[in-house]
Structures are given as C-alpha cells and as structure tokens.
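The data layer described in this paper is built around a simple, fixed record for each protein. Because each token names a local backbone shape, the row as a whole describes the fold. We quote a single record here, exactly as it is kept in our systems:

***
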Amino acid sequence: MLSRDKVLGALEEKRTDFEQYQDKQHSEQDTRRHLLDLFLRLSADEVMARVAAREQEWPGALPTAELDTVADLCVPFAERWANHTEARRWAMTVLQDRPAAAVDGSQIPPSKDFSVPLGAVQIGWYVNHHAPGGKYEKDLYFEVLPPQDLDDDGSDGDFPDWRVNQRRFVLECQYLVKLIERFAQAPAPARPLCFFDGSFIISFAGQIRPERAGPYLDAVQALLAASQARATPLVGFVDSSGSRDVVQLVNTAVGPPFMSMSDGALLSALLPNWGDRSPFFTCARNDTLSNTGKAAFYKDVAFCYIRLSAERPPARIELPRWLFDSGQAEAIVDRVRAECVVGNGYPYVIETA
C-alpha cells in the first residue's frame, strides 16, 4: 500500500532538486526569448553571413528565402473550420485525384527463447488514388531472416537485433523506390506523394559501426535520388521530433548564450493555430556523419515544422530539396495537412500502410 506520508517526505527531500530544475527551465526560456529576438531581426543573407563568419559548415540548418517572407518564423494557415466535417470537406478537395502512397515496416527480433534463431520483417504498402468512389491498393511482403543472416561475425555470440532493424529500414526505402519507379511514366498529377515514416537525416547511423551504417546511408540516398530522377514527390514525416537543427542555427547566428532545447520546444509558441508552419530550412545537421564526410546528402533535404495538434509539439516535415526549389513545397504541405485531417492528426496514408 502506498503511504501518502512517505511519498510527501520523499518529495520534500528532493525539494532543492526540483527548485534547481525550475530555475533552469526559467533560465532556458529567458535565453530562448533573447536569442529569438536577435535572430528574428536578421535576413536570410545576414544569417548566412554570420554562419560563414563562424566558419561552421554544419550549423544545424541553413535559411531559405522563405525566412524573409514571414514574420516570427510562422507561415500562417489561412483555412479555418467550424467543425471536423468542414475540415474533411476541405481535405477531400485537396486530395481528390492526387494519389498518395506509404510504406510501413514491422519486425520480429530473434529470441533466445527458441532453439533456432530467426527474425522476420514485414513491409506493408498502401496506395490511395483518392478517386471518386474509392480506389486503393494494399499489400505486404514478409521475409524471414534465418540463422545465417543473423550471424554477428562472432563479436559476442548473441543473436543480434541490429540485422533485423537494418533489414526493415532498407526494405522500407526499397519498396518506396519501387512505388516511385512504378508510377514514373504517369503524368505528373498521377504520381503519388510518397510518405516515408521517419527522417531522411539518419544521425543514428553515425553511432554504429561503419560497415553497419553503410546500408542505411545507401538506402536513404537511393530513395532521395529516385524521387528527383522520376520527379515524384516524397515526404519524410516525423510526428515527435527531438531534433535541434533550427536551435543550432539560432545558436550559431546569435549566440552565446546557447539554447539546449529541441526545435519543437523552440517553435511551439510561434505556431499557435492548426496548420501553421515554420519557413523551410535546408538541413545542415552537425553530427558524426556530416563531420566525417558521409552526409553531403543532408543538404539535399529541406524541412519545416507544422502544428497538427494542440497537445503535441509541431511535427517535422522533410522534403527533397529539389521539391522546394521547384516551388512545389506549399502544395505538398497542403496535401500533408489534408492527410492529417483524414487521419485525425497523423497522415492517414501512413496509418493505413
């Protein structure tokens, strides 16, 4: 039985810790307000000049021309609805006859509970043509990884999860490439907006052995290249991002002092209404991969943050940079918004894959 007095006593013993934490939070918010005030006075060219002066090749992010067209890092969403019925009506107008596709994977890791080690990966894909009367495709691929595929090169004798994780990621990318290739000869409006459930900026690959990181890097770069070669729109969607790319850019341009919060925490108060988004930035993340010359493709990715829920920080949307440069970004963001209306805050096409 839980003792109220014991709980209160234990909390009282940690009073100083809680007070110090609260003071740190207040200090962080003061720093945020100060740095944002300085940053918002700068043009995109002035930000670039400051980054160059600091000789920082990877400052987290780089501004695009959109920075000069918005106030307070917010591109407001003009649509307002009285109820969800009106929102769905708008979404159907945006999505009609504009296909969307997504791939989503799951896995079964090897277990020591079984005498024969095996793993499995399942890849599901979904194409919604958004045609009158409904037209969609849904299928899956299932692959078993036998003991030979799970061998860990004798490093520790355990049955590793890493091969299953890697295989799932690579297959997700490969199946999106297959969808891109399949629709490559269709007229541009009939090529699906392809959703990748995650980020193209795979910093985690810098924390694993180079030989294990290679397939991740190859898969992402092949996916980005296929999108550009086939002129097919592609989106990476991250519902809860802990990234700090914009924060690092602000720190680089106008710090010190420096912030340590996430981009979502930085931008949340600046995106008050559903559908509001930040301007697009070019990714220039400073991580192990970029600092060792393995992530030149980071700068081929543009990203923004968008308010899709009142309860959660803004989500992160990533696009191949060619889509932004060709003027398609806002139309694609609208399609993401519409998918999220249908999916109640999360892209319906990913949810269904």
User: Anything to note?
Assistant: The two ends are 45 Å apart (CA to CA). The chain has two domains: 1-39, 43-352.
